[in-house]
Design brief:
Helix content is 15%, strand content 36%. The protein has six helices and 21 strands. Helix 2 packs antiparallel against helix 3 and helix 3 crosses helix 5.
């Protein structure tokens, strides 16, 4: 019997074995993000000894989620359900958080990580220019810095390949008129970026003896929303040229988006969500990093238009639910977990939380 769009059977395969062949699987959920790609998945299993003792459910095992015959999520198992019967999987890109970039050649460092066991693939040696650093750094930090410097996003999506992607400029889907309202928030938006960096060194061994500031600005956005500055200190990267520091300033502004944040996500059903050509689509195959058109709304500037376009920052889908939650790129933190996630760390300092949200269609 054919399943209606959005309700195809979702299944989990771990290290090549279908879980439903030896245990009950329920509550299957997964998340995609514009930065990172496939980031989280979880599901419950039965407490039968045969399930909990299975050699398949081992940390680091390859996890694949399928919608019918289409793979829609891939990652690695982080918790096998021994304590609570809940299983969790994380991004293939997380492996780069535990590996040092042993060379300043980012393409070579990525390929070495794969040789050393990282599970993602990488083709065409397509990394943007690496941002120099004089101290050892984790590969994830090197990837993030290079992606930001180029105004791109590092992702590993369902095909398992590492890519550096630009935000889309044309919509893939649309939400039917009258469904959902995206509120606006004025925190976290950025119109001017200032980057403090080391511009000169002297002595043996070399010691920093000069700093400079690279800037990037969107004056038009500041005219509309009011000026909002962001300061970033990257002196820990060592000596940089003005061009290299300028890449960081311009790339950060491009990824952050010189416009207001969004205040909420929306949840839609298959009846409310269409491909741009008007066809129904499997909600399980919708992912972050795609663009959605909202019909018959006011833009963030309070101008009535037939439509405006939003880049999806994250998707949350539960198998069999018949609905998907879409979080726009640039969603403002509204709960404790999200607020904590916005605190800058070595991993997120050069990866802005707000994004290039809505544009007039």
């Amino acid at each position: 019997m054919a399943h209606p769009p959005g309700r195809l059977m979702a299944r989990v395969r771990v290290n090549g074995r279908w879980l439903h062949s030896f245990t009950n699987v329920d509550g299957l959920k997964w998340r995609h993000a514009a930065d990172g790609g496939c980031v989280e998945a979880s599901w419950g299993i039965s407490q039968r000894p045969s399930a909990l003792a299975s050699p398949v459910l081992q940390r680091g095992a390859l996890v694949e989620v399928f919608d019918g015959l289409t793979r829609v999520w891939v990652g690695t198992l982080s918790e096998g359900g021994e304590a609570s019967s809940e299983c969790y999987a994380t991004s293939l890109l997380d492996a780069t958080r535990r590996r040092i970039a042993l060379t300043s050649d980012l393409n070579a460092a990525i390929n070495q990580a794969i040789t050393d066991g990282a599970r993602f693939t990488y083709v065409n040696n397509s990394a943007p220019p690496a941002i120099p650093t004089e101290a050892p750094e984790y590969l994830y930090d090197a990837i993030t810095a290079a992606a930001t410097g180029a105004g791109k996003r590092a992702t590993v999506r369902a095909d398992g390949a590492l890519r550096f992607e630009s935000d889309p400029t044309t919509p893939d889907y649309y939400v039917v008129p009258g469904v959902g309202i995206l509120g606006r928030a004025d925190e976290d938006y950025v119109t001017h970026v200032s980057v403090l960096y080391i511009s000169s060194v002297s002595g043996t061994p070399p010691v920093a003896d000069g700093t400079a500031v690279a800037t990037a600005a969107d004056e038009a956005a500041a005219e509309v929303y009011d000026r909002s500055d962001r300061f970033i200190d990257i002196r820990d990267r060592g000596l940089l040229t003005a061009t290299e520091a300028g890449w960081i300033a311009s790339g950060f502004l491009a990824k952050a988006g010189a416009r207001l944040s969004f205040a909420n996500s929306i949840t839609v059903t298959a009846d409310q969500f269409r491909s741009i050509g008007g066809q129904r689509t499997s909600l399980a195959q919708v992912r972050a990093g795609q663009m959605v058109r909202f019909m018959g709304v006011r833009t963030p500037e309070r101008v009535a238009r037939a439509s405006f376009d939003v880049v999806i920052g994250a998707t949350d889908y539960e198998a069999g639910s018949g609905q998907i939650t879409l979080s726009p790129l640039g969603l403002a933190a509204r709960n404790l977990a999200d607020i904590i996630a916005t605190i800058p760390t070595i991993w997120t300092r050069l990866n802005p939380n707000p994004g290039a949200g809505a544009t007039a269609a």
